[in-house]
């Protein structure tokens, strides 16, 4: 993938929304983490996100079964990625990983900004269904 794919990336774009949904502490913790990364670490993290999104969209386009091996491997990678993000409910004492994943999975479908990351509503629906299955099978 192009190294410039995230040129102009602004992690503060959704600050108000994040603070409203999850609180100022969650935003501040994530912001502190992001700013602590060097430019190479930020680029590597962005590439990881882009690769995961692309792999999800490709699997959906191929018609993979959301409960099948390929989709469940993507779901495992997705949850691993979510666990790496400070400030999320997963990283809070008593955090509800299963509930967090279910909630995000649903948001991927109902919020077109998220759905776009997975090739649109159909791709996001595939991601949601695969993550739901993963929660039931592995979390």
Automatic annotation (TrEMBL):
It comes from the Bacteria. The lineage of its organism: Bacteria, Bacillati, Actinomycetota, Actinomycetes, Micrococcales. Residues 14-133 form the TipAS antibiotic-recognition domain. This is TipAS antibiotic-recognition domain-containing protein.
């Amino acid at each position: 993938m192009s190294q410039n794919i995230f040129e102009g990336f602004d992690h503060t774009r959704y600050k108000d929304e994040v603070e409203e949904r999850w609180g100022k502490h969650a935003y501040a913790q994530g912001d502190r983490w992001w700013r602590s990364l060097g430019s190479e670490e930020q680029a590597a993290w962005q590439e990881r996100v882009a690769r995961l999104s692309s792999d999800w969209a490709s699997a959906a386009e191929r018609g993979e079964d959301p409960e099948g091996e390929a989709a469940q491997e993507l779901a495992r990678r997705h949850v691993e990625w979510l666990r790496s993000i400070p400030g999320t409910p997963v990283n809070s004492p008593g955090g509800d990983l299963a509930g967090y994943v279910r909630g995000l999975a649903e948001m991927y479908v109902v919020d077109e900004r998220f759905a776009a990351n997975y090739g649109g509503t159909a791709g996001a629906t595939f991601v949601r269904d695969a993550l739901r299955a993963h929660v039931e099978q592995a979390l």
